Amino acid sequence: MTAVLFDNVSRHFGAVRAVDGVNLEIAEGEFFAMLGPSGSGKTTCLRLMAGFEQPTGGHIEIFGETAEGVPPYRRSVNTVFQDYALFPHLSILDNVAYGLMVKGVGREERRRAAEDALAMVKLPGYGSRRPGQLSGGQRQRVALARALVNKPKVLLLDEPLGALDLKLREQMQEELKILQKSLGITFVFVTHDQGEALSMADRIAVFNDGRIQQLGSPEEVYKQPKTRFVADFVGSSNVLPAKLCQRLGVTSSFASLRPEAIVLSAPGDGALSLSGTVSAHSFLGAVTRVVVDVDGSRISVATPASLVVPKVGSPVTISFAADELHPMEDA
Amino acid sequence: MTAVAEKLMLPEPRGPAGRLSDFFWKHPHVLLTVLLAPPLLWLGVVYIGSLFALLLQSFFSIDDFSGLINYEFTFATYRQLLSETNLDIILRTVSMAATVTVASALIAFPIAYYAARYAQGKWKVLFYLGVMLPLWSSYLVKIYAWKLILAKEGILTWLFEKLHLLWLLDAWLSLPVVGGNSLSVSYTGTFIVFVYVWMPFMILPIQAALERVPTNLIEASSDLGGTPAQTFRHVLFPLALPGIVAGSIFTFSLTLGDYIIPQIIGSSRLFIGQAVYAQQGTAGNIPLAAAFTVVPIVIMGAYLWMAKRMGAFDAL
Amino acid sequence: MRSDRLNRSPLGLKIAAAAGLAFMHVPILLIFLYAFTTEEKSYQFPPPGLTTQWLAVAWNRPDVWAALTLSVKVASIATTVALVLGTLCAAAVSQTRFFGRETISLLVILPIALPGIITGIALRSAFSMAEIPFSFWTIVLGHATFCIVVVYNNAVARFRRISGSLIEASMDLGADGFQTFRYIILPNIGTALLAGGMLAFALSFDEVIVTTFTAGQQSTLPIWMLEELIRPRQRPVTNVVAMIVVLVTFLPILGAYYLTRDGDQIAGAGK
Q: Which chain A positions have a beta carbon within 8 Å of C184's beta carbon?
């Protein structure tokens, strides 16, 4: 069943088109990521799902029901906020039990449910503390428990890991994924971190300027960027200009080529090749990034660090399989 | 599966409160109107209405024979306002307000500077309360305290006597304009009490402005070879100026409109506030009283406009 | 931390600041001394002797009690009105963006920014034009008008500190507007309102200028004091009343300070 449906949805603030004709369909139980730079419209889409914003055009359905004009407090959709938005005057337990309290669930029942939810996010026994006494990572877990205790049909997460340090972030990514699979709840996740989106999501919508640039599985989005923006924003694909595309026999004006798909050697069977000079290289640990200048276009190549890297200024031939070259729509 | 289909959205708002909440959510402007209507009716209609009615009366005049108000549009009252005696009152009040403001700034600055730059932790709290308590203390009690101090038999005379400086006090009191029979019936007394009562209003805005000056600016100035005096003149003072101007709005405006202090401690010569009071009370000349109130309004209007241009409102 | 020596204040500044603070506090302390003087007819210093008899005399004065009762009644009702109106205004200004919020702020501040005599005389002439006789309620009306700003300033400062996502979070979790107000907004602005209310009470309790124009024949405690100031008749009783007024106004100021000390400061501009 379709969990969330956007049919040509727009949200304009005066002349600003925060969301401009977005179509998407999120399936029940899916882990869906909305990826894009700030101001690309991804957060506004999330707010439209939560009910904090109303569309200026188009139609939204949540589990087949019309969502326009339904206040946030009547939606079975819960949000984990970017700044967590824990109520500072309430204990952790009361924070988690808040949703049940306003729905009129009895004191004993909601206390039990809140404690279960805290245990689920690995914070058992923290109920009597105040939000101010917890670390950032712990607050994040409380925010998660506070949303999940309501058994939402859709859980919205607004850059929930943005404030955490790298190590904690990686750990939470793992936990969120496991949690989502075990609960079977639809997760809609907003992030500007492409690595996060690629590693966690079942499908990704890449946003720019209020529109979806590409919608697909992480692999599709990463390997076959449809537009130049996606190629730039997701991963670090090379964008070959029209001149090189022509030389390689591609009709479109731009094509993408991932650095890992290129080797620094003469072409094998069925492979394409270009020649240029090495203009820079940098050691990145497992790989070395070599920048090759081909007729003024800088193409970066990721080569295993174990290989010998040619000197800067030396001529070099780069080659790659033909199907690694993906034609793209215009810029 | 249960027979009843699980609905995602709650089908119906619960009770009248729920329905009302939905209504406000769908019509935020109605909610805004509901919130704003009572205070706007009170302030916008009752208060502003009264002010306008008062200003309107300044364009009426009083019939010299019957003492009744003549409800005809005229500038006669304003001509009366500009008579020599009245101009004298206005000038006296404005110069007093200006002097009080300057003196207040001079006394307030060191306190504000110390509190902003050097006071830490417990001392900061103590300073803050030390300013807030006198500021909020009863206005009349403060005046009363000075009546005790300035009385001929009071502490000040006693102090001068103990220091063998009575001749100095007498010499000061024998001066024209600022002198008088005793301090409590002289301009000097009025001035001291004005400064005492309104000066605390100067401290917090200056402190707020100074607290926004980064310490390294002062260090940079002395690092560049500025003497403390130069640092003060070229760095600290210009940056504190918006705070001083913000504070001066209070000292100036409050002095301008006060009628109780000069009545209790001062000579028999009138200030604007006293003139307004006398005109509306004993003289029963509401139009002239109204015209008199226009003077502080106009002066403060000009003052606020100037202060705004100097960025003083950010320091409030 | 930088060394204290580098940060030490110049001696001159220390003296000037201390002298300034002494200038602010010594006259108030004198009030306490004079409340116990044995001298009845003048303000003689040093007092010829000390006594506590005036406390008893003041205690037994019905006119002082009547004035005190009136002042407390007026201040209570004016504070209540100001709390309602000031909170409504602050809520409207903070929770929504609408055209004219600057105007609202100006309107609220005006009764205190203009000299009290203007507010007083404007209300007086409006009462007489509308043929409203002076009463308890005309005093309350005047006081509530200038008390709104104190509540408003405190409430606006606190509203600004409640992040918008807190309210959204509450609605997201299923609380409607009223529930959000009751469970989230009210607990978070409660202490600010209490502080604002205390300051409004202190302001009203002490007000004299507007009151002289709106009171008619009744006398509040400040009016009683003003008459004593103009025509001293019972200096010892006035001394005691002055001391009590100082003590009574200190309490709400200290209370308001402790309620708001973390974060926003009490609006000192509110007088």
A: 87
One-letter amino acid at A230 equals V
Kindly state whether residue C176 falls inside one of the protein's structural domains.
Answer: yes
Q: C94 versus A31: which is more confidently predicted?
A: A31
Task: Give CA–CA dist A188/A186, Å, rounded.
Answer: 7
Query: Does the domain at residues A238-327 carry the CATH identifier 3.40.50.300?
Result: no
- Furthest CA-CA distance within chain A: 76
Q: How confident is the model at residue C270 (pLDDT cuts 50, 70, 90)?
A: very low
Please name every residue paired with A204 in a beta bridge, in sequence order, or none if there are none.
Answer: A33, A216
Cβ pair B259:C178 closer than 8 A: no
Yes or no: say if C81 and C197 are a contact pair by the CB < 8 Å rule: no
Chains that touch B (3 or more CB pairs under 8 A): A, C
Q: Which fold has domain A2-231?
A: Rossmann fold (3.40.50)
ipTM at complex level: 0.82
- Both structure tokens of A116: 């279960």
All residues of chain C having their beta carbon less than 8 Å from the beta carbon of residue B157 are 45
Residue pair A148/C173 in contact (Cβ under 8 Å)? The answer is no
**Cβ contact, residue pair C183, A72, below 8 Å:** no
Residue B89, min C-alpha distance to chain C (Å):
16
Domain coverage including residue C190: 61-266
pLDDT-derived band of residue B10, with 50, 70 and 90 as boundaries? low
Among A50-59, A265-274, B135-144, the least confident range: A265-274
pLDDT tens string C162-193: 877 899 999 999 998 899 999 999 998 888 89
Q: Is the pLDDT of residue C2 over 60?
A: no
Residue A163: count other Cβ atoms within 10 Å of its Cβ.
15
If contacts are CB pairs under 8 Å, which of residues 6-65 in chain A contact chain B? 62-65
CA–CA separation, A19 and A208 (whole Å): 9
Q: A-chain residues within 8 Å CB-CB of B8?
A: 62-65, 75-76, 153
- B7 to A75: CB separation less than 8 angstroms, yes or no: no
Return the residue of C nearest to B36 by Cα: C89
Contact A70 B9 (CB under 8 A): yes
Percent of chain B with pLDDT over 70: 94
Q: For residue C15, is it within any domain?
A: no
State the pTM of this model: 0.80
Cα-trace Rg, chain B: 28
Q: Domains along chain B? A: 13-70 (no CATH), 83-309 (1.10.3720.10)
A122 touches chain B (CB under 8 A): no
